[in-house]
Design goal:
This is Transporter. The protein is mainly beta. The protein is globular and about 65 Å long. Strand 4 and strand 5 form a beta hairpin. The strands form two sheets. It has a twelve-stranded antiparallel beta barrel with strand order 1-2-3-7-8-9-10-11-12-13-14-16. The N and C termini lie far apart (48 Å). The relative contact order is 0.20. It has a single domain, classed as Beta Barrel (Porin), CATH 2.40.160. It has one helix and 16 strands.
């Protein structure tokens, strides 16, 4: 198991972070829309035992769109579309002779698209409870490059059902909010199902201008799939991925609706996943 499926970081980490906004549903006709770029460069990975091993440097990059639109006061439509995804690997060079042992490669395509709906169950006295159902479409490339290990999607159709709980509160006149979610992800094509959990805290440092957000997310495999972790090309196919991830985001409103955001995400521990941090920068439109 020498090459890890780094694109799984994109598919899972971005998915969990983007969809954590769904505790408070939008009013009818309101929405939140973001175009962002995500980047991961990884020269080491977590093995299936949780240890770290080095690998040839790979980079994963995508441009993506996230949107949440209020269909009614209780129902929202949600979409995550990585409209351009690129996976590359550097040349493998001999440390003694300087000769290129393996030439680098690159694969470009669309990534896996997520489409979902969110239903507001409760919104009262600063508490909010909602449920989200999301379909993960296998629109990315699950095999690419000379050995088939260059991927921009996992090749499986999954369905995620998630409960989201949120609360806004104040501490010494400082505004905060807290969110938590618990989900079950059913995966097809002999992938193992997953339990997803996460918490998020945010505060408004400058009123109506600047938000600072921290997140903790986990993925736990149920190990009930029959797909071998190593496919026929010898690369990891992202079955039984597990991790505990942390992240931070800063969002700044240039106007009342338009803003920019920066995000940093890393892993505290993991199995069968890239071990390096990822970065994301975006521009959003918040129609309240």
């Amino acid at each position: 198991m020498t090459i890890k499926k780094l694109v799984a970081t994109l598919a899972i980490i971005l998915f969990c972070f983007q969809f954590s906004f769904s505790q408070w549903t939008k009013d009818k006709g309101k929405g939140y829309y973001k175009v962002s770029a995500w980047y991961l460069e990884s020269d080491e990975h977590y093995t299936d035992t949780g240890d770290k091993d080095p690998n040839a440097t790979r980079t994963d990059f995508n441009f993506n769109f996230y949107g949440q639109y209020g269909l009614t006061k209780k129902w929202d439509l949600i979409a995550y579309v990585p409209f351009f995804a690129r996976t590359t690997q550097n040349d493998v060079v001999s440390g003694t002779t300087g000769d290129v042992l393996t030439e680098g490669e690159a694969v470009n395509s669309i990534g896996d698209i997520d489409l979902g709906v969110s239903y507001g169950i409760l919104n009262k006295n600063s508490w909010a409870l909602s449920a989200t159902f999301t379909l993960g479409l296998p629109t990315g490339k699950s095999e690419g490059g000379s050995d088939g290990s260059f991927q921009t999607g996992d090749g499986e159709f999954n369905q995620l059902l998630q409960l989201n709980l949120g609360k806004s509160f104040s501490v010494y006149n400082q505004s905060f909010y807290g969110k938590a979610y618990l989900g079950f992800n059913n995966r097809t094509n002999d992938f193992s199902d997953q339990i997803t959990t996460g918490i998020e805290f945010g505060t408004q440092l400058i009123k109506n201008k600047f938000w600072l957000i921290g997140r903790l997310n986990t993925i736990q495999s149920l190990h009930n799939g029959s797909l071998n972790a190593q496919n026929s090309q010898g690369s990891i196919f992202a079955n039984n991925i597990e991790y505990v991830g942390i992240g931070g985001e800063a969002s700044y409103y240039i106007t009342k609706k338009l803003g920019v955001s920066l995000n940093y995400s890393s892993l505290l521990s993991g199995k069968i996943i890239a071990a390096n941090p990822s970065f994301r920068a975006g521009v959003f439109l918040d129609i309240k």
